[in-house]
Design a protein that fits this description.
Length: 272
């Protein structure tokens, strides 16, 4: 960075900061961030500016950890990526205004623009890359957590377990259902497993095929599978598609499925 520009920034840092904070008010992304507490918003803006000033000598490596930490904070706050891009673009315009107002640099205008770009562009790229990396990491963790919840096998009585399914079933999820089902049958020593499809919006040929495969796998390891939660529209779809579900029992509600499962394990529900 040109020493003259560095000196101007240092001399007018307070005014530059004040102008930048005033200019960002007009941006929607910055206003969205203002929905948080004023202390948090102001502190984040101050940290953002310090991060910008820290790159004035192109000492990017020294503040790399700070860039990653700042990007992670924005994701944790749920703030949009445009907070970074609009904030830096506003700072660029504010800085150029101050440079051309305070010092006669018009004859070096092109050079000044290039100097400012060489200062701010690497920082923008670094922040965007750091944000993307943190976002991918967050999404990856959420996918793992979702997979753990997507197909749980729940023991409800001795030797009886229920697997409630909610949402669309694709090939990847069907594989997870199969794994959880077989591991759960062994782990819970289940004799009867109820697959509840009440929360599955659509049962087509592929979904039915996956369910039949799961039921057959359960049968091969010595347990029985009951399909419950078959709504009238799903029953009609299954009939129209010509899908054969005769290999294992089906019930319209989970309650009726549990009653059947209890009978299959020599028990019954008795009203007092």
């Amino acid at each position: 960075m040109d020493k003259v520009i560095v000196e101007i920034v240092a001399e007018h840092k307070e005014e530059l900061t004040k102008r930048w904070k005033k200019n960002i008010i007009s941006h929607a992304a910055m206003n969205q961030a203002q929905d948080s507490t004023s202390d948090l918003y102001n502190q984040t803006n101050d940290d953002f500016l310090e991060l910008i000033y820290a790159h004035i000598s192109k000492e990017v490596d020294e503040s790399n950890d700070k860039v990653l930490q700042f990007a992670e904070r924005l994701i944790n706050f749920g703030w949009d990526l445009s907070f970074i891009t609009q904030g830096l673009q506003t700072f660029r315009r504010t800085l150029l205004d101050v440079l051309f107002e305070k010092v006669t640099l018009n004859e070096r205008a092109l050079e000044v623009y290039q100097q400012v770009d060489r200062w701010l562009d690497p920082l923008m790229n670094e922040l965007i890359n750091a944000t993307a990396t943190n976002w991918e990491h967050t999404v990856s963790l959420q996918k793992v957590a979702l997979k753990e919840l997507t197909a749980p096998l729940i023991p409800v009585f001795q030797h009886i377990s229920v697997m409630p399914l909610v949402g669309t079933i694709d090939t990847e999820r069907a594989k997870l259902i199969m794994e959880n089902l077989l591991q759960g049958v062994i782990g819970h020593r289940a004799q009867v497993v109820l697959i509840d499809i009440t929360g599955v919006p659509v049962v087509d040929t592929m979904v039915a095929h996956h369910i039949i495969q799961a039921a057959e796998a359960v049968r091969l390891i010595g347990a029985t599978c009951i399909l419950v939660g078959i709504r009238p529209e799903i029953a009609q779809t299954i009939v129209n598609l010509g899908i054969d579900l005769k290999q294992f029992p089906t019930k319209n509600t989970l309650y009726n499925g549990i009653k059947t499962a209890l009978q299959m394990t020599n028990r019954q529900i008795v009203e007092l």
